[in-house]
Batch of 2 targets.
Target 1
Amino acid sequence: MSEDAAKSAERRLGLAYGFAAYGSWGVLPLYFKAVQAAPTLELLSHRVVWAQLLLLGLTLRAGLGPELRAALVPGRTLLLVLIGTVLIAFNWLMYIWAVTGGRVMEASLGYYINPLVNILLGVVVLGERLARPVQWAVLIAGGGVAWLTLQAGEPPWLSLALAVSFALYGLVRKLLPLGALVGLTLETGLLLPFAIAYLAWATDAGRLVFRTHGIGFDLLLLLAGPVTAVPLLFFTGAARRLPLTTLGFLQYLSPSIQFLLALTVFGERFTAARGVAFACIWVALALVALHGARRGRR
């Protein structure tokens, strides 16, 4: 196989991984709707426990045990991991609560806003400069959020919480000298004692849903591990093979699928105020995407 053919094959494989990752995250509400009989904290705890078992096995199989142990030494890396753990736990908790509470459309809005929050963090924290199209994009998106705030009488707190927490988590991970697999293994490991403690308390208090809704429901809860880890592995495979501009386009697939699910499957209301806000953010994201594509060609 020639070098060009090999590169083309790698790119096609990267695209397949990218669509698999963002497509999996897009249909994630279907999973949480299927297990919504369990309380939010129990769902989060199952996600942590079963994901930790799977991720730890994958990490050791990949020979990353020394990197995992090195990250546990007290210092800057461990501090960043602790901060990232708090952020991702909060993000997971809010997302599960949003989906099981019938607020998938608000969650999708949050993940549409997320790339724009990333841009703002780059300016504020990393000292990056905004090109003119990106400046307009931020202003238009801000106008959409402001319109929604005026119409609803309060800011879209859930959407903003998801967007900001995940953007801050992304910033922390950018500063961490760890791979995605080791990082997530550490984060779920730090959350594991709290997850086990909650499950033990819920069992003692007679509030645990696990093993009360039949074997099928229990198997769905056990799937929380693969549901968490497998899309991340797909994403890692895509990130290694695709340019950032391509990944930038693919990231909009996930909230788009969630938006369509909210509209067509879950029957959530798409009000005029939401329509204006979504339109503003879609225009803003289109500006950012076009600017990124042009810069990538150059």
Target 2
Amino acid sequence: MNILVCISNVPDTTSKINFKDQNEAFDTNGVQFIINPNDEFGLTRAIWLQQKSGAKVTVVTVGDTACEPILRKCLAIGADQAIRIDAHPLDGFFVATQIAALCKKETYDLIITGRESIDYNGAMVGGMISTILSLPYVANCIQMDVEDSNVSLQREIDGGKETLTSSFPIVLGAQKGLVEESDLIIPNMRGIMQARQKSLTVESAITLNQATSVKVFEKPPEKGPVKLVDSNDVDGLIELLQNEAKVL
């Protein structure tokens, strides 16, 4: 089995976010970047398939050289090879088109993306890749069982879960549940040393017109001061909930 895991380079949730150029660009100064958590769930599940059935696991990202440390981490986790498509990720359509172009050069049985990235939360790349390649797509995937050339899947839906079956090739949108946080693989020294010997290939991006542009970034308004209400002042609490919070 040939597996491609799509990786996003995202800011750590503890990083302080700022913007520059009149709030038209994200300021990366001082920001720590990590593997997108949903992508890491998918990568871990791919490594399980590698360990169980000898699947080949390739990771890919769209970005500049600043993305290479997270690709090296993916290799240390256990991926066989890494590909960096050398381009600034303009938007979800741009990323999906670049990855789909790569997939047309080599056949992948399973393409795993995260359900969404934690920076822009667009949740669009997986669906776009599947559309461009005319492949089935299962989003919000929380369970996967492979048997020969068929795969049984479970995904979260509003109010419940849905079970599906499919043949390969297929695109999956991974999330927590496909594996748990306790299952994530922490690279050890042996994995880190092996990662230095594994292939990290840089591919040129295809020419593509930018479909969207950023007009402005805006932070949410700061929270106001907390109002403390005496535990015996029930009427005052109700008034605040009705007139200020407007939740009653």
